[in-house]
Design a protein that fits this description.
This protein is of the alpha/beta class. It is 32% helix and 25% strand. Bound molecules: adenosine-5'-triphosphate (ATP).
Amino acid sequence: MCVLKVEKLSLNYNLNKKEIVAVRDVSFSLEKGRTVGIFGETGSGKSSIGLAIMGLLPLNSSIISGKIIYKGKNLLNLKEKEINQIRGKGIFLIMQGGRELFDPTLSIRQHLEEVLNARSQMTGEEVAVKILEFFEILMIEKDVLNAMPSELSEGTLQKILISMALMNKPEILIADEPTSNLDMINQYRVLKEIRRFQTRHDMGLIFITHDLSIIANIADDVLVMYGGEIVEKGDIYKVFLNPGHPYTKRLLAAFPTLDNYKKDLEFIPGNLPAGDNLPTGCIFHPRCVYCQEKCRKERPFLSKLADNHYVMCHFVNEIQQWSDNVV
Ligand SMILES: Nc1ncnc2c1ncn2[C@@H]1O[C@H](COP(=O)(O)OP(=O)(O)OP(=O)(O)O)[C@@H](O)[C@H]1O
């Protein structure tokens, strides 16, 4: 069952009188109990999508077009009071940058009690038991409860944010780089716990990251973003095993594995285009080894490569046949 549908979302930022294109024509849907992984380099528009869903975009942003449908309503048309009722229990966002999200004058215990008391009828004792359950699973020391945010590391704060999110039992969790400050062991624990929780509560998960290995580990479907656009999307196995877009192909070729250990890794020359100076035609054409005249002039649209596998490239079928040693 579909729990969230994003349709042709486009949004810009205005900075020093310049229009910065952050997201262009992004569409996807999230099913109950499933995970959509949003992958992209820094600045490719991932966080802006999460903020748009939550109605938390900054004042210098503007939605150019699109819809975000949740329980039959377009979230983009809701008043602040209405969207406030959805935030937390309906859709919960774990944002990047843990420390700023905590009130420096409140202890961790006060933060967590606030979350649990606001959302349930639990007694003080039940709240304490619940908090300690999550702490144990996520390997957080009990003493942390009485600490102030300034006394804790970024990694611990990140794990506390994740506990807060899961305690809320949201229908949809948007996790924006939730494990970026954690070491491998903690990352593994947190991902495992999120997945366990997801299965138990049938939670829809949107997982935003620039780490391909995490996407491979957690996502059912993946959106590969480049310069604000989805250049490839679909079933994780199809995209990873048979990438259709030249950008995805290069990314996966640059992914370190034991097989290519110590070999020169492939890289993509050039940089992500600036949002106020997007290339004409295909957004990836200045960096594409397969670039043709048409790519410089015409913007491609997502076309179907297979069931639940779409690629935004004029020459997707030809590239599959062209010599692989170009990549
Ligand atoms: N408040 C803002 N004002 C102006 N431009 C912004 C603002 N927030 C984001 N941008 C620009 O919008 C584009 C998309 O940014 P966004 O943060 O959504 O990307 P991202 O893929 O999430 O990056 P990261 O992984 O670094 O968080 C970038 O060009 C970014 O510089």
